Amino acid sequence: MSDAGEFPAVGRPTGELLDELRAERAGDLDWRSGRAFSLVYNVDDPELEALQHEVASMFLHENALNPFRYVTLLRMESELLGMVRSLFGAGAAGLSSGGTESIFLAVQTARDEAAARGVFDPELLCASTAHPAFPKACKYLGVEFRPLPVGGDGRADPNRFAEAISDRTALVVASAPSYPFGVIDPVTDLAAIASSAGTLCHVDACLGGYLLPFWERLGEPVPPWDFRVEGVTSISADVHKYGYCFKGVSTILYRDRDLQQRQLFMYDSWPGGLYASMSAAGTRPGPPIAGAWATMTHLGESGYLRLAERVRTATRGFRSGIDGIDGIRVTSDPDLSVFEFGADPESSTPVDIGAVGDVMDDRGWNLDRQQGGLHVMLSPGHDRVVDAFVSDLGDAVADHGQARGGGLAYGGVVES
Questions:
Q1: CA–CA separation, 191 and 199 (whole Å)
Q2: Distance from the CA of 189 to the CA of which of 43, 47, 233, 305 falls in 20 to 30 A?
């Protein structure tokens, strides 16, 4: 292994490099075991994973910057966006490299739409639980970020939005669901507030977008959140989350094509000819486009329903198990398969939830830390480990973690 920061004077043999990486990876996070709860969405489907590897290899070197040079990628992207528009009832859709870029594009569109009506010092309103990609986008794009307190249920409080909205408001944001607590904001109320003020409303469904349609079809209660809600103007949804593709591919959807045109960048004042792009990226790797097309085409509605059923089974098992352990509770009433749990303040049993997390770490579980507790995001593969998780968690809570006493440090991974 070369010293950090030192450019190699001589190249190394292929076999030596591969052996080194295989040995090192043995200590990396084993997401296939069902003991990890973020970053990778374990579909637990070897056939799909093999298909994705083959497709990624097939298009590894293709660049969709000029899709007309790669007609197969162009065809796949066109069909993929058609599937997406159909699923969400969108008027227009496009791809991005991930949730952060999709959110950036939504904020940029709102900023430019506000400028068209004479607002040049725009602001964005969202709940304090909104993804950090929103303040990040505001920082880069010159938009004032205004987070508002949530209600006791962890959801956005419409009254706060009604009081805060102004002529400067370029975008009202709702989460479906929020990452920390897995609750869906009251989209209908927030969209109505935005519409009455003549501004845009974005629903951040990066996390839940490709699960919620199938969750609803399974008969689970899903509050209104998509383009069926009047006033919702854009939605972000990541294919590399519950769309079950590999990183990195997300979708940004609009109610109408005119709004999407705000994303378009065109430039010809240089010797190289016309340069045009509908997203922030120039070079666009082929594998995520091909992988997303292959994943959706392979799974179809029946496959997504089957995987949603497995996620529901895992969610019911985890929640029931946690509810049965004295001293801890689920922080909110999550609408989906992502939630936080922590010490129950109403219990007579004192629990050091940070120490519980340490004990679970020692038992091979990789729970994420939040400021108020431990966090899980459940995938299809978690239905195989419900009993083992609940058993280990019960033991960890029974110990109260008193041997550690390390407390809870914020170190959760927030992905987009």
A1: 9
A2: 305
Instruction: Give residue 75's region: left, alpha or beta (phi > 0; psi -120 to 50).
Output: alpha
> Which residues on neighbouring strands pair with residue 366, listed in sequence order?
36
Segment holding 236, helix H or strand E: strand 234-238
User: What are the phi and psi torsion angles at 287 (to 5°)?
Assistant: -55, -45
Q: Which two tokens stand for residue 100?
A: 């952060």
Burial profile 62-92: b = 16 or more Cβ within 10 angstroms, e = fewer: bebeebeebeebeebbeebbeebbebbebbb
Sign of CA dihedral 37, 43, 46, 50: negative
pLDDT digits (tens, 9 = 90+) for 69-111: 889 999 999 999 999 999 999 999 999 999 999 999 999 999 9
* DSSP code per residue over 347-379: -SS---HHHHHHHHHHTT-BPEE-SSSEEEE--
List C-alpha distances in Å: 155 to 128, 185, 242, 332: 9, 5, 22, 9
Residue 313: phi and psi, rounded to 5, are -60, -45
List the domains of the chain with CATH numbers.
50-299 (3.40.640.10)
**Percentage of the chain surpassing pLDDT 90?**
85
Q: How far is CA 118 from CA 104, 168, 329, 350, in A?
A: 21, 9, 49, 56
Q: What six digits make up the tokens of 101?
A: 């870029």
Do the beta carbons of residue 290 and residue 76 sit within 8 Å?
yes
Indicate whether this model's pTM tops 0.70.
yes
386: tokens are 């419900």
How far, in whole angstroms, is CA 103 from its chain's centroid?
Answer: 11
Q: Which residue has the tokens 């195989």?
A: 384
**Quick count: other Cβ atoms within 10 Å of Cβ 376?**
25
